[in-house]
Design goal:
Oligomer: single chain
Number of helices: 9
Low-confidence stretches: 1-31
Strand content: 35-45%
Number of strands: 22
Mean pLDDT: 88
Distance between the termini: 7 Å
Number of domains: 3
Radius of gyration: 26 Å
Length: 483
Amino acid sequence: MKRLLPLFLLVPALCFGQGFGFDDDSDDSGSSLPFTLDFSGKIEAAPVLYLNDFKSGEYADAFSVLDFIRMYAGFDINGKNAQAFFGFNISYRAFEELKDGDFSQYPPELIDELWLKGYFGKFSVEAGLIKLRWGRMYSPGPLDIINPLDYSDLTNLTESREMKIARPMIHASFSIGEFSSVEAVFLPNFAPHKFAQDGRWTPGQYSNIVPVFIGGIFDRALQINPPFIYTLQGMLALFGGSFPIPYELPDTSTLDYFQGGLRFNTVIGSSDLGFQYFYGNYMRPSVSLNGVDDFIYSTPLPSPLTVLPSPHIEYTRYHQIGVDYSQVLFGFTLRAEFAAHITGDVSGDDGNVKNPFLAWSLGFDRDVFAGININVQCNETIRLLDGKVIKNPALDCEGASDVTSTRFIIQISKSFFNERLECKIVNIWDIEDSGFAVIPSVAWTANDTRIEISAGIFAGDTSSELGQYRDNSFIKLKLTYSF
């Protein structure tokens, strides 16, 4: 962390004989400026080699040449009763985005965080573009739901801090005694997780949505009106094997999508506890079709003028009630989170809305032997009222998903040479869909310089969340200089 005085303050400070207000050795504290400016940053070069492209000879796609070099700069201004922070990501991609980017949902990538904070005794309040962490898990758990994550580039899959997207919000905190505090947060709108819309990291949930819907219409026709199958086949032949079902994600940038929550943190004995309530939106869209039965029972001619079912897309609203816990016990650092989510579909039979669901996370980390550290975390969601879900993705937004979703994250690491060399391997395994990723890395740190070589290997069922990227396995070299 470097402490610098901006040039526009340097001249008047020298002219009037004022101290800089930083690390001044003068005894005349009254002459110091009323604030300090801390400046920090890093310059990073991170070429990525995609193995499948390299093997096939598509060298132009094997390297992310245009995004090799990035810079981060942070300015932290501290006064007696106020603090301001400005963090910027400077890269070719960030500047390209500024030309024609749509910032209605997400701030420009150029801005990492941008906020102002005021202190009033035990009470503090901050406002701006903020990354806020709730919960106690090592990796994101069910209570860490304030900020969406950026899944448009999975070469950073293990860097949850970097994947977080800052959101406009007001965050207030009040201290109660020495060990307790109450937090409140208000977000004027909503943004879901960010996924690539094209390219190698586009998820199949978006690119395959039309074939999935067509399959659902076929299944429904077989169930309620089998003769319609022949008409449907004629339509598909006319449209070249598929017919268009255009869809558009809803605009969530308005006050109609406001979010808010409260959190209480305390310490009881050797245990850290947290309790929270949050009113918000599920980070992934719920998608189904309207008018499927009417479409099937009609007898349209196979014509481009045929009225097709229309997609229904929304981000399910829910009330979350949650609790978290952490404690060091017998050498283990234990962490746990549990949350109940109450949605608008309290009877479980509304195919346009997610059912109520439970979510929990349990994990621990410990140094086991020979300086090896192991960190294990299990996240799971459990859908309630599953018997009311129609097992057809065209009719029910949860028709193609399992009642549970379970992910194990296991990290094993060891440091050498006074922690200058770190060897680490992260394993991510999704139980229900049989997808997994293995991310090994080796990093050397010397003073302000860090050299890291990592790899990402995706495998499993090609329809799984991780296995669908099996052709995107990569090797990444990251050179970082911090200042």
